[in-house]
Amino acid sequence: MSDLNKLTLADARDRLRAGDVTSVELTEACLRAIDGADQLNAFVHKTPDLALERAKAADARISEGDAPAMCGIPVGIKDLFCTEGVASQAASGILKGFRPEYESTVSGQLRDAGAVMLGKLNMDEFAMGSSNETSVYGNAVNPWKVDGRDLTPGGSSGGSAAAVAADLCLAATGTDTGGSIRQPAAFTGTVGIKPTYGRCSRWGIVAFASSLDQAGPMTKTVRDAAIMLQAMCGHDPKDSTSADLPVPDFESMLTGDIRGKKIGIPREYQIDGMPTEIAALWAQGADMLRDAGAEIVDISLPHTKYALPAYYVIAPAEASSNLARYDGVRYGHRAKLAAGDGITQMYEKTRAEGFGAEVQRRVMIGTYVLSAGFYDAYYNRARKVRSLIKRDFDTVFADGIDAILTPATPSAAFGLGEMANADPVQMYLNDVFTVTVNLAGLPGIALPAGLDAQGLPLGLQLIGRPWEEGELLKTAHVLEGAAGFVSKPAKWW
Ligand SMILES: NC(=O)C[C@H](N)C(=O)O
Question: Which residue numbers delimit the Amidase domain (predicted)?
Answer without folding.
Answer: 25-473
